[in-house]
Amino acid sequence: MMINTKAPTDQAGALAQTNNQTLPFATHARTYQKRGFCIFPLVPNAKTPLTPNGFKNASNDAAVINEWIKRYPNSNIGIATEASGLIVIDCDASKGKTPPKEWALPGVTDGADVLATVAERYGVIYPSYTYSVKTPNGGWHYYFTDSGRTTKSCAKVNGMWLIDVRSRGGYIVAGGRVLESGMYESGIVEDIAPLPLWIRQAITPKSLLVSHTIRTSITTTTTRTTKSQRYVEASVRSEIARLQSAGVGTRNDTLNAVAFACGRLVAQCPSIHSFVWHELTHTALAIGLSEQEAARTIQSAYMAGMESARV
Hints:
By secondary structure, this protein is an alpha+beta fold. About 40% of the residues lie in helices and about 15% in strands.
């Protein structure tokens, strides 16, 4: 059965608004520098680098960035992905294009839908639990840390329609930046999650995949932990689906029950706490609850669930 591929995208789309659309570099450069990103100026309202060597001139040095702020206050911001320790999954909008035969599936209309379909095939939850940026044309950038393992930037890896990878040898336009067609809008999740194993496998060219290596990485350490995590993820998917279908007038009560149940599940597998917490938050916002209301309910019910599981 096909999942509702639109739901995760909607969850990731509760967007934080930028305060200054006219001086992107002056307004946001220091924020990205403090996050540890290597950045560089782009032509105002465009994606073209202003530096002579493009992303190779990217810097995290405060003095360099301050100089760029003085010289290029209204420029856009580029992030050099490899130098910043990032892998960014770039899910493009279709722009009216018809999907190729292998992706002509129910509900698949753009790159985000393709990524959701790939997630379903791996039996995992769509990665709406990491920092994301919505592009002016309706696409999505999902940021992950790469744990020191670089991946070559490429387009349509392994035939995934409208999905590009930005890592080694590439850069991405930062959230809060401006094009003539619109804004790059940062999502509400600030944390950048480690690149999941399933995405690493999905974006690794098939010619480089070695089945023995994959089997080893999946079963390393202890099978018991892996089985536990799979059980918890499957149970969380069920709970999140229950929350997504909550009707008007029942949403806060349903969130309370779902958060409690998720707390009990995470008590069995603490390593996915951050993942589950973000899933709860995204879904609560997507169904119309306010950020304050959602945070209050999740905090109390989730912690109560964890405590009850320890008794």
